[in-house]
């Protein structure tokens, strides 16, 4: 009798680095950690489920090779996490994500498969119609993936009770009630599941390391989720909107959630001390916004004396007097400003 215990969940980070960058993919293109997949892994693992992360981008796997690796892992549920490393990049990853879904279903039509991500949350029914997935997540993902696992492990799964999915029922696409956002980030998913990632494979952008800095090792992490602004053209809130009401936000408010400076510096401590990381990207869509949050993180880094090389996103109108000096002392050598247009008419229209 076999003592094999089935793996509960595989989170798949899709990738097409070599196809996109061709000969430049092996040495020049950056290789970023799968931030969203790793946070989902932490959220699910803290609730007692077994989890693995398959980073097809870092391991340079084709869709067929990715499907073969998933088959070897034999999870109860496979989730393809379609988040990019900047807000609009989820859509850019849909082509390879669809190919992975197709290859996986061709190898084992019975394996339960879900899609999670920004593009997916923005267009859930269309994604379900176009891709070979059983479930499409209509929100940010953590509670939905948790409830999918709980349903799949039950003796008589009832997916209509899983919040935040679009799925097929008797030949038609149906959507369930929205799942709430994760509110207590410090306790529910305090860090990326670094131990599940091939940390030796990640590489910073070449411009991030001008001046002959070593590009490896490298890491990226979030310190906030969302953005309080209401730009009509922006997709940042797409994964979050459906869950805001369920989590207690007013409909008129865009959620903006924080990890505490203490939780952020705990991750940086681990990256520096256990993995030797110096190059870090803060993946927040709007990092330079809340002075108390930013300066708290900067003060903790300066206090430790770390020699870091960090970049982050900002807006021209959110950088306050005195911030830049402290950001620089903490190791922020690059700020990426979102400059939409020089013309007021273009901006207004």
Written overview of the protein:
The chain has 349 residues and is α/β, with parallel strands linked by helices. It folds into two domains: 7-175, Rossmann fold; 186-344, Rossmann fold (3-Layer(aba) Sandwich), CATH 3.40.50. Helices cover 34% and strands 18% of the residues. It has helices at 17-21, 35-45, 63-73, 89-92, 94-107, 118-122, 124-130, 142-152, 185-188, 241-244, 261-275, 291-304, 323-330, 344-348, and strands at 7-13, 51-55, 75-82, 112-117, 135-137, 165-169, 172-175, 218-221, 224-226, 256-258, 279-282, 309-314, 332-337. It has a seven-stranded mixed β-sheet, with helices on both faces. Helix 3 packs across helix 5 and helix 11 runs parallel beside helix 12. The termini are far apart. The mean pLDDT is 91.
Give the second-level CATH assignment, the architecture of the largest domain: 3-Layer(aba) Sandwich
What is the CATH third-level topology name of the largest domain? Rossmann fold
Determine the number of helices (DSSP H or I, runs of at least 4 residues): 14
Class by SSE composition: alpha/beta
* CATH class value of the largest domain: Alpha Beta
Mean pLDDT: 91
As an assembly, this protein is single chain
Number of strands: 13
Mind describing the biggest β-sheet? Answer: 7 strands, mixed
Number of domains: 2
Give the strand order of the largest sheet, numbering strands 1, 2, ... along the chain. Answer: 2-1-3-4-5-6-7
Strand content is 15-25%
Q: What is the CA-CA span between the terminal residues? A: 68 Å
Shape type: globular
Spans of 5+ residues with little confidence (pLDDT < 50)?
none
